[in-house]
C-alpha cells in the first residue's frame, strides 16, 4: 500500500518510509510534514507502507519495502527520485537505496537520500548503549525491544550483519545524502559514523547536528524543527537539479 501526496506539477519523486522501530507507525501519521515537504521541494511524495514486526521479521520487511519502492519508481518512468525517512524509516530507505542503486535501470534515477536520525548499527552504536531508560523520543529499553521484535534471537554480533546493519555495507557509488540528527538523540553516533563512511566511500554527504534536540524533533512545532525541515527541502531541491 502507498499513500500519495500529488502535485499539479512536480520535478521528481520522493519515496518516504515512516519510523516506528519496524513495529509501530503507519503511512497516515505524517501528512502535515510530507505535504509541506512536497510543496516546498516540488517533489511528488509517495509514502510506502511495509509489513511490521513481530509478525514480519526484518529480512522480509526489507525485501517487501524494496519491491514496493521498485514498483513506485517504475510507475513514474524517468522521474528523478529521492528516498528518505526517519529513524527505522531511514534505516529502510538506505537499505532500499543500496539495493536499487546496483540495478542499472534504477541507478541513474536515484538522486539523493534524506536520512533523519536513522538506525545504521543494529549491534548498538556507543550512543545507543549509553542511552538511559528515560523516554524522550527514544530510549535504550525501547531500542532493545524493537530489536527483539524485528530480529528475534539474533546476538549483537549477528545484528552487525551488513544485510541488516547498513553501516557495514559497501557504500560506493551512492548518491548525495543529507544526514540530520539531534545531539541528544540515542542514535547520534549512528548518524555521525554513517556520514563519515559515506564520505570515505567518495560520496557527497551533508551532516546537520541540531543542538539540544531529541529523537523525532523535526516533527514538533519549534524553531529548530523549522530549520531542520527547511534544510531538508533545500537539499531535495538541489538533488533534482540538472547539475546532479
Written account of the structure:
A seven-stranded mixed sheet has the order 1-3-2-4-5-6-7, sandwiched between helices. The mean pLDDT is 96. The longest helix is centred in the N-terminal third of the chain and has 18 residues, at 58-75. With 244 residues, the chain is of the alpha/beta class. It starts with a strand and ends in a 5-residue tail after the last helix. The protein has one domain: Rossmann fold (3-Layer(aba) Sandwich), CATH 3.40.50. Helix content is 38%, strand content 17%.
Write down the CATH topology: Rossmann fold
CATH superfamily assignment?
Alpha/Beta hydrolase fold, catalytic domain
Order of helices and strands: EEHEHEHHEHHEHEH
CATH C-level name: Alpha Beta
Can you tell me the overall shape?
globular
Structural domain count: 1
Helix content: 25-40%
Which structural class should the secondary elements be placed in?
alpha/beta
Largest sheet, spatial ordering of strands: 1-3-2-4-5-6-7
- The CATH architecture term is 3-Layer(aba) Sandwich
Rg over alpha carbons: 16 Å
Average of per-residue pLDDT values: 96
Low-confidence stretches are none
Number of strands: 7
Share of residues in strands: 15-25%
- Tell me the span between the first and last alpha carbons: 30 Å
Give the biggest beta sheet: 7 strands, mixed
The DSSP helix count reads: 8
Amino acid at each position: 500500500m502507498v499513500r500519495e501526496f500529488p502535485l499539479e506539477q512536480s520535478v521528481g519523486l520522493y519515496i518516504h518510509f515512516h519510523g516506528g522501530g519496524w513495529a509501530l507507525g503507519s503511512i497516515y501519521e505524517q501528512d502535515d510534514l510530507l505535504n509541506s515537504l512536497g510543496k516546498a521541494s516540488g517533489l511528488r511524495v509517495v509514502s510506502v507502507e511495509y509489513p511490521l514486526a513481530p509478525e514480519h521479521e526484518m529480512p522480509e520487511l526489507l525485501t517487501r519495502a524494496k519491491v514496493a519502492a521498485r514498483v513506485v519508481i517504475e510507475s513514474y518512468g524517468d522521474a528523478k527520485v529521492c528516498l528518505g525517512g526517519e529513524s527505522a524509516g531511514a534505516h529502510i530507505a538506505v537499505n532500499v537505496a543500496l539495493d536499487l542503486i546496483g540495478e542499472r535501470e534504477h541507478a541513474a534515477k536515484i538522486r539523493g537520500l534524506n536520512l533523519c536520525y536513522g538506525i545504521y548499527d543494529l549491534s548498538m552504536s556507543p550512543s545507543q548503549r549509553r542511552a538511559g531508560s528515560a523516554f524522550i523520543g527514544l530510549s535504550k529499553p525501547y531500542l532493545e525491544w524493537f530489536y527483539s521484535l524485528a530480529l528475534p534471537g539474533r546476538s549483537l554480533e549477528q545484528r552487525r550483519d551488513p544485510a541488516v546493519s547498513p553501516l557495514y555495507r559497501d557504500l560506493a557509488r551512492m548518491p548525495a545524502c543529507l544526514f540530520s540528527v539531534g545531539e541528544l538523540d540515542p542514535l547520534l553516533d549512528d548518524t555521525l559514523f554513517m556520514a563519515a563512511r559515506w564520505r570515505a566511500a567518495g560520496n557527497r554527504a551533508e551532516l546537520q547536528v541540531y543542538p539540544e534536540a531529541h529523537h523525532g524533533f523535526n516533527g514538533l512545532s519549534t524553531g529548530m524543527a523549522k530549520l531542520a525541515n527547511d534544510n531538508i527541502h533545500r537539499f531535495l531541491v538541489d538533488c533534482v537539479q540538472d547539475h546532479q
